[in-house]
Prior knowledge:
mainly beta
Amino acid sequence: QVQLVESGGGLVQAGGSLRLSCAASGRTFSSYAMGWFRQAAGKEREFVAGISWSGDSPYYADSVLGRFTISRDDAKNTLYLQMNSLKTEDTAVYYCKNNFGTWGKGTLVTVSS
């Protein structure tokens, strides 16, 4: 069974950067489309960014377009989310998910003003 484990969250000041990682178990990572989602306190989980199995044509929520970059390294079975120009409203628990509905447990990102 595939497992996803996020890491890289933490506390950062507004305007700063973080890179999140999502490590996947199993040997079929390269065949999955992957995505990042986030959930702020008291709000519903929302889509952040997605990437196809081939890595082509990543797509983003309007709120992060131009600031976040999703990428994947199939040799390392790892998905990344580079987050730049962070805003306080980016504070949330960030989750990765594959197209078969497997979720990680999340990593907390806190952006201070």
